[in-house]
Amino acid sequence: MARIVMKFGGTSVADIARIRNVARHVKREVDAGHEVAVVVSAMAGKTNELVQWTREASPMHDAREYDAVVASGEQVTAGLLAITLQNMGVHARSWQGWQIPVKTDNAHGAARIRDIDGAFLIKRFGEGQVAVVAGFQGIGPDNRIATLGRGGSDTSAVAIAAAVKADRCDIYTDVDGVYTTDPRIEPKARRLAKISFEEMLEMASLGAKVLQVRSVELAMVHRVRTFVRSSFDDPDAPGMGDLLNPPGTLICDEEEIVEQQVVTGIAYAKDEAQISLRRVSDRPGVAAGIFGPLAEANINVDMIVQNISEDGKFTDMTFTVPSGDVDKALAVLERLKTTIGYDVVQSEAGMSKVSVIGIGMRSHAGVAATAFKALADKAINIRAITTSEIKISILIDGPYTELAVRTLHSVYGLDKQ
Ligand code: ADP
Ligand code: ASP
Ligand code: MG
C-alpha cells in the first residue's frame, strides 16, 4: 500500500465527462489499496473568467476580494469530483483550503503556503476516505481565503504530499509529461523520462507553465517524488497503476539521471517589455536608487544590462519587466527622475525571452555561442542576454518567439536524441 496525492489541472476537469474520467483514475488507485488524496484546479478557462470579472468590476480592486472571487472555481470542481466518485461507489468528500487548513501568508493573490498540518488528511486516510481538496487556495493570517498565484494548484498538491509524507505526487495534466520544449510550439519536442529539480525549476521560472515554480521548489526541499503525467490516458490501460514507474516524467535528483545531456530543454516567456534609461549618472547607489523603488512597487524586474561608461560620468541602464507592469514602472521612474538623474526613458513592449536550460552546461563551453549563431542565421536580433550556470536567456522581438524556440530546439539536437 502506498500513499498517493493526485492533482488534476483545468483541462482535465473541463466538463463532467472529463471529471468522470478523472474519477476513474482515482478509483484505479483506490482499488489497488492505496491511500489517496486528490487536489483539483478550476474547470478550464474558469479562473480566467473570474479574474476578468474582478477587473470589470474595478481595475484597481482589493486583493482580498479578488481571492474571494477566484478561489470559487476550485470549490466547484472539488464538489463535482466528490459527487462523481461517490456515484462510483468511492468514499469521497470535498474539502476547501481553510478546512484542512492550508495556512498561507498575507500576500493575497500570490500567497505562499506557510504550513499544512498533515493530521487532518491522515485521519481521512484512516477512515478510508478520499479527500478531494480544492487547490490554489488556503487561509491567511487575517482569516480570509488566500490564493497561491496562477498555476497554484500544483503547489497545493506538492505541499499536501509533503505534509502527509506521500510516496508519490502525480500531477495529471493535458500532456503526458515534461517535454524538451512546449509541445504546442514545437511538435518535434520529446518527452523526458526524468528531469532534475534544478532544471525543472529553471524551466518553470523561465516560462514553461507545466508546473508552478513554487511547486518545484517544494518538491526539491521536501524530496517529494513528483510525476507529470496525462489525465487523457485510458485510466485502465496497462501500466497506469505502476507504483514505481508510472507513465510520465519524474522530477528527481540529478544523480538519478544516467544519461545527462548538455541541453535539456528550451523555455520561453512572452509579453516582456524592455525599459532603457539613457545617460544615467555613473556613481555608487544608482542601481539601488532605481531598482529599490521598483521592487517596493511590486514590479518584477528580470534581465538587467548596464553599459560600461565611456566617460566615467554617464551610462545606459536597460532592464525588462512584464508588459503589464510597464505603465507602473514608468510612473515610478518619472517620479525618480531628479533623484537618479537621467536624460530620457524609452520603453518597448512585445518582447519575448527564450532560454536554453541544461545542467550539462556547467561542464561544456560553447553552448551560448551555438545559440547566438543559430539565431543570427535566422536573422533574429538579440536585445539582451543573461546567463547562469545552467541557463542562457535571450531577449528577442515577440513575433520571432516560435521561430527562435524551434531553431534552438533543433540546433541542440533535442528533436533527435
Ligand atoms: P494544467 O491545467 O493541467 O495545470 P497547464 O496548462 O498549466 O495545465 O500546463 C500544461 C501545459 O504546459 C501544456 O499543455 C503545454 O502546452 C505547456 N508546456 C509548456 N512548456 C512545456 C514543457 N516543457 N513540457 C510540457 N508542457 C509544457
Ligand atoms: N485555477 C488556477 C489557475 O488557473 C490554479 C491552477 O489551475 O493551478 O491559475
Ligand atoms: Mg497549471
TrEMBL record:
GO terms for cellular component: cytosol. Residues 275-350, 356-417 form the ACT domain. One of its GO terms (molecular function) is ATP binding. Coiled coil: none annotated. Its EC number is 2.7.2.4. ATP binds at residues 7-10, 173-174, 179, 184, 209-210. InterPro entries: AceGlu_kinase-like_sf, ACT-like_dom_sf, ACT_Aspartokinase, ACT_dom, AKii-LysC-BS, Asp/Glu/Uridylate_kinase, Asp_kin_monofn, Asp_kinase. Keywords: Amino-acid biosynthesis, ATP-binding, Kinase, Lysine biosynthesis, Nucleotide-binding, Transferase. SUPFAM superfamilies: ACT-like, Carbamate kinase-like. It catalyses: L-aspartate + ATP = 4-phospho-L-aspartate + ADP. Pathway: Amino-acid biosynthesis; L-threonine biosynthesis; L-threonine from L-aspartate: step 1/5; Amino-acid biosynthesis; L-methionine biosynthesis via de novo pathway; L-homoserine from L-aspartate: step 1/3; Amino-acid biosynthesis; L-lysine biosynthesis via DAP pathway; (S)-tetrahydrodipicolinate from L-aspartate: step 1/4. It holds the Pfam family ACT. It is an enzyme of class 2 (transferase). Substrate binds at residues 47, 74. Belongs to the aspartokinase family. NCBIfam families: asp_kin_monofn, asp_kinases, PRK06635.1-2, PRK06635.1-4. This is Aspartokinase. It comes from Mesorhizobium delmotii.
